[in-house]
Specification:
With about 210 residues, the chain is of the alpha+beta class. The protein contains five helices and nine strands; from the N terminus they run ααββααββββαβββ. The strands form two sheets. Strands 1-2-3-7-6 form a five-stranded antiparallel sheet. A hairpin with a 4-residue loop joins strand 1 and strand 2 (about 60-65). Helix 3 packs antiparallel against helix 4. The longest helix has 17 residues, at about 1-20.
Length: about 210
């Protein structure tokens, strides 16, 4: 019986690996989406990680994040335009606004919780976490700005279902290029990128594999 359970556990682990998130594309080209594609695209660009301390049986951090890629933003526009019955001009204006935002920053919408809710509040001056955007080439950029969303709108709660009354919500923005300005931190040559939360309480790394 024990041997059978061991084999089942191994099989479950292999299945989890095989069914992990699919690689994403950093293409900046136009893509065709319908309103009903939004949930699929949202899942494709969303990751979650939990930090757990076995010694204290505490959860220092659970964090979910959606990378607002150009692909994601296009799907968002289609969903929003359909829900709010935008005309063609308003839809085009929204798409242009999303393009400007995408060209300005690498942006993530994030929701967090923890055993001690102070640990989940990234906006505190004594925040327990340092945030960085890294890639598999060893390159890294620090957080440029953090916006706390104190009262998420019904739209945000619907479009980002990991937002709940038990979680704190933030928009994190990182520079698109490295400090020397030589190249984008998220370039076509990388194999993956990660949103990293690190500190004395532990480390949470949310990774997106990139299509070659």
């Amino acid at each position: 019986m024990a041997e059978a359970r061991r084999h089942l556990a191994v099989a479950a682990c292999l299945l989890a690996v095989a069914c992990g998130p699919l690689p994403v594309s950093l293409s900046d080209g136009p893509q065709s989406f319908g309103s009903k594609d939004y949930e699929r695209v949202f899942d494709h660009w969303t990751r979650e990680k939990q930090v757990f301390n076995l010694d204290t049986m505490e959860n220092p951090l659970t964090v979910s994040a959606t990378f607002r890629s150009w692909q994601f933003r296009q799907a968002f526009v289609e969903r929003y335009a359909d829900d709010y019955r935008l005309d063609a001009d308003s839809r085009a204006a929204l798409l242009e606004e999303q393009r400007r935002d995408w060209e300005a920053w690498n942006e993530f919408l994030v929701a967090s919780t923890a055993t001690n809710q102070k640990w989940a509040d990234f906006s505190r001056e004594d925040s327990a976490w340092v945030m960085a955007l890294t890639n598999d080439l060893g390159q890294e950029v620090a957080l440029a700005s953090l916006e706390k969303v104190s009262k998420p709108s019904p739209m945000l709660r619907t479009y980002y279902p990991f937002i709940t009354v038990y979680r704190k919500t933030f928009v994190l923005r990182f520079p698109r290029v490295l400090e020397d300005g030589a190249m984008p931190v998220l370039s076509s040559g990388i194999g993956s990128f990660s949103l990293v939360f690190s500190g004395a309480l532990g480390r949470a790394e949310l990774e997106w594999k990139v299509k070659k």
